[in-house]
C-alpha cells in the first residue's frame, strides 16, 4: 500500500486547514483542506483512507486500485472562482496562488507565458506542449480574458524546435498571440528577463513586479491547469515531473512523467529505475536553483524535477572560494555542496550584479543573464586564500569567470556540474555558439 503525503502548505501564503479527520475514506479529487486568507485549496490526489494528520501534512493510505475519474470542483460561472476552487498555484516553482495573481486586471497590458524551461535538463513543459498544445492555448485565452490583456507572448527557447512548430500551428487564427523566441542561455526564462526581451522591452528594477510593466508572467503548466479547472472542473491533484540522472546503470536518462499524483514520495518514482547507479545527491527542482531532497519527501504542486547527480569529487580539505549568483544557488546551498565535496570554504562573494536582501539573504540580479565581469570577485576570493572556485553563475557570468580563473591557476567547479554530468549535458564554462541559438 502506497502512502501519499500532502503538505498543507505548498504555496505562498498560509497553509490549508484540514477538513477531514483521521480514519475517513476520501476519493480522488475530494476537497480536504481550505486556507484561511491567502493560500490554496487542497485536494486528495488519490482515493484511500486518511491515516494521519500532522501540523504540516495529511497522509493518505492509497487504495491499490485507483480510479481515473475524480471528484469535480463546484460548478461556477466565474473562471477566477474555478481557478481558486481548483487550488491552482504557480507550477513553475514560486507557488503563488493563481487566483490572487490574476485578481488585478492589466487592461491593455501584456500576458507573458513562460514556456522557456529556464533550468537545463528539465523538459516537462516542452513535453506538455507536444501532447496538449491546443488545450494550453485555450488556457491562455481564459487567462487573457480574466486579466483583460491586449496581447500574449509565449516565451520559449529556439532550441525546442518541435515545440516551437507545434505552438506556431496552435496559435494560427489567434492574432493576439505570438512567440517570443529566447536564446539557449541561463537564466533565459527568469520573469524580468522575459519582460526585458519581449516586445515590452523594459528592464524592471530588482524590487519591481511585472505589474510595473502592465504585465503578468505565468508558467505554461499553470495555464494548462487553468484549462483543466474551467473545462473539466478538475482540481490540481497531479504534477508533471522531469526525472533525470544515471537511471539505468551508467546510461544517462532524462524522462518526463506526466500527471504524477501530488504527494507521491520521491522514492516511489525512483523505484521505477531499479538499475539506477550510485548518486551523489537527489535534487528537487533544477540544477541551478533546486534543493537537496530525500527519497521520503513528497512531490508538491510546484515540484519540477528530481535529479540524481553523479557522486561528488572529493577535494580533501582543499580551500575553496564560493562565487554566488542571484539567479542560482544561495551561498548556504553552495556551502552544502562544498561540504559534500570535502572542501574548506574560505570565502564567499556575490556576483557584481546581485542585489542582496539583508532580511532574507536572497538576491536578485540587476540585469539577468548579462554580466559586467567577475574579475574583481575572483581576485577577492584568491586573496581570501581560495585554491579552487565553486561558482553558481549564469551562462554569461561563468564565461567571464573563465576569462581570469585559469590565469590565476584556479580550478573551477560549477554547482550544476554534477547534475549535468549525470544527464550527459555539457558542463557550463565558456560561452558557446549554441548559447546564441
Automatic annotation (TrEMBL):
<keyword id="KW-0479">Metal-binding</keyword>
<dbReference type="InterPro" id="IPR010208">
    <property type="entry name" value="Ion_transpt_RnfC/RsxC"/>
</dbReference>
<dbReference type="InterPro" id="IPR011538">
    <property type="entry name" value="Nuo51_FMN-bd"/>
</dbReference>
<feature type="domain" description="RnfC Barrel sandwich hybrid">
    <location>
        <begin position="2"/>
        <end position="59"/>
    </location>
</feature>
<keyword id="KW-0004">4Fe-4S</keyword>
<keyword id="KW-0408">Iron</keyword>
<keyword id="KW-0249">Electron transport</keyword>
<feature type="domain" description="NADH-ubiquinone oxidoreductase 51kDa subunit FMN-binding">
    <location>
        <begin position="83"/>
        <end position="227"/>
    </location>
</feature>
<keyword id="KW-0411">Iron-sulfur</keyword>
<dbReference type="InterPro" id="IPR037225">
    <property type="entry name" value="Nuo51_FMN-bd_sf"/>
</dbReference>
<dbReference type="Pfam" id="PF13375">
    <property type="entry name" value="RnfC_N"/>
</dbReference>
<keyword id="KW-0813">Transport</keyword>
<dbReference type="InterPro" id="IPR031001">
    <property type="entry name" value="PR_assoc_PrdC"/>
</dbReference>
<dbReference type="GO" id="GO:0016020">
    <property type="term" value="C:membrane"/>
</dbReference>
<dbReference type="InterPro" id="IPR026902">
    <property type="entry name" value="RnfC_N"/>
</dbReference>
<dbReference type="GO" id="GO:0009055">
    <property type="term" value="F:electron transfer activity"/>
</dbReference>
<dbReference type="Pfam" id="PF01512">
    <property type="entry name" value="Complex1_51K"/>
</dbReference>
<protein>
    <submittedName>
        <fullName>Proline reductase-associated electron transfer protein PrdC</fullName>
    </submittedName>
</protein>
<keyword id="KW-0677">Repeat</keyword>
<dbReference type="GO" id="GO:0046872">
    <property type="term" value="F:metal ion binding"/>
</dbReference>
<dbReference type="GO" id="GO:0051539">
    <property type="term" value="F:4 iron, 4 sulfur cluster binding"/>
</dbReference>
Amino acid at each position: 500500500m502506497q502512502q501519499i503525503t500532502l503538505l498543507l502548505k505548498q504555496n505562498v501564503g498560509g497553509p490549508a486547514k484540514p477538513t477531514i479527520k483521521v480514519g475517513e475514506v476520501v476519493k480522488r479529487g475530494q476537497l480536504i483542506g481550505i486556507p484561511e486568507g491567502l493560500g490554496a485549496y487542497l485536494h486528495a490526489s488519490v482515493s484511500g483512507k486518511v491515516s494521519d494528520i500532522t501540523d504540516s501534512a495529511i497522509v493518505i493510505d492509497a487504495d491499490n486500485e485507483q480510479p481515473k475519474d475524480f471528484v469535480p470542483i463546484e460548478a461556477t460561472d466565474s473562471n477566477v472562482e474555478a481557478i481558486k476552487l481548483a487550488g491552482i498555484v504557480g507550477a513553475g516553482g514560486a507557488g503563488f496562488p493563481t487566483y490572487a495573481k490574476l485578481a488585478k486586471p492589466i487592461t491593455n497590458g501584456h500576458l507573458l507565458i513562460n514556456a522557456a524551461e529556464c533550468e537545463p535538463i528539465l523538459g516537462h513543459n516542452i513535453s506538455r506542449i507536444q501532447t496538449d498544445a491546443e488545450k494550453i492555448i485555450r488556457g491562455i485565452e481564459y487567462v487573457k480574458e480574466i486579466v483583460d490583456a491586449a496581447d500574449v507572448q509565449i516565451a520559449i527557447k529556439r532550441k525546442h524546435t518541435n515545440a516551437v512548430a507545434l505552438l506556431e500551428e496552435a496559435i494560427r487564427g489567434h492574432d493576439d498571440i505570438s512567440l517570443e523566441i529566447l536564446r539557449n542561455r541561463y537564466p533565459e526564462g527568469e520573469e524580468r528577463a522575459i519582460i526585458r526581451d519581449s516586445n515590452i522591452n523594459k528592464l524592471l528594477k530588482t524590487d519591481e513586479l511585472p505589474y510595473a510593466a502592465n504585465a503578468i508572467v505565468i508558467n505554461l503548466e499553470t495555464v494548462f491547469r487553468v484549462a483543466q479547472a474551467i473545462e473539466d472542473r478538475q482540481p490540481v491533484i497531479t504534477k508533471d515531473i522531469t526525472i533525470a540522472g544515471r537511471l539505468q546503470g551508467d546510461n544517462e536518462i532524462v524522462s518526463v512523467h506526466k500527471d504524477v499524483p501530488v504527494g507521491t514520495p520521491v522514492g516511489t518514482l525512483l523505484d521505477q529505475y531499479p538499475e539506477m547507479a550510485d548518486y551523489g545527491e537527489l535534487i528537487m527542482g533544477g540544477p541551478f536553483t533546486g534543493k537537496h531532497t530525500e527519497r521520503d519527501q513528497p512531490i508538491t504542486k510546484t515540484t519540477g524535477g528530481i535529479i540524481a547527480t553523479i557522486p561528488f569529487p572529493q577535494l580533501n580539505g582543499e580551500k575553496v572560494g564560493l562565487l554566488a549568483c542571484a539567479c542560482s544557488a544561495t551561498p548556504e546551498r553552495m556551502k552544502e555542496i562544498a561540504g559534500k565535496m570535502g572542501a574548506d570554504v574560505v570565502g564567499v562573494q556575490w556576483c557584481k550584479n546581485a542585489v542582496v536582501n539583508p532580511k532574507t539573504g536572497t538576491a536578485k540580479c540587476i540585469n539577468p543573464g548579462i554580466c559586467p565581469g567577475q574579475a574583481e570577485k575572483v581576485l577577492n576570493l584568491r586573496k581570501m586564500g581560495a585554491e579552487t572556485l565553486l561558482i553558481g553563475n549564469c551562462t554569461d557570468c561563468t564565461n567571464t569567470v573563465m576569462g581570469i580563473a585559469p590565469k590565476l591557476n584556479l580550478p573551477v567547479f560549477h554547482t550544476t556540474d554534477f547534475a549535468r554530468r549525470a544527464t550527459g549535458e555539457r558542463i557550463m564554462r565558456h560561452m558557446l555558439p549554441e548559447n546564441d541559438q
